[in-house]
Design a protein that fits this description.
The chain is an all-alpha fold and 91 residues long. It contains 3 helices and no strands. The chain has a domain of 60 residues. Helix 1 runs antiparallel to helix 2 and helix 1 packs antiparallel against helix 3.
């Protein structure tokens, strides 16, 4: 891969995107669960229970990419560390 350049700003930007996605996914899952619980104050029957299963499936699906995103952030942090070391090296 000739002429490939990895800038610190790009790596930090990618970290920010991943961190933002983690927050957004967790927030959406939490809000969905809260709204389901709120609906349960007035609505407790078989349909509410069925909806609970669907809500659980949805919250699991929303949270499923989070572990991968955490791994991505860790790898990006490692790249950032390597870039810093490289920049500090006097050739």
């Amino acid at each position: 891969m000739a002429n490939v350049s990895v800038g610190m700003a790009a790596v930090q930007g990618a970290q920010n995107v991943c961190s933002g996605a983690i927050q957004d996914l967790n927030s959406a899952a939490q809000k969905l669960s809260e709204r389901y619980r709120d609906a349960g104050r007035d609505w407790k029957d078989k349909k509410y229970e069925q909806l609970g299963g669907i809500v659980n499936d949805c919250t699991r699906a929303l949270r499923s990419p989070v572990d991968g995103l955490f791994e991505c952030v860790a790898k990006l942090q490692e790249i950032e560390r390597i870039l810093r070391e490289y920049d500090e090296t006097n050739l």
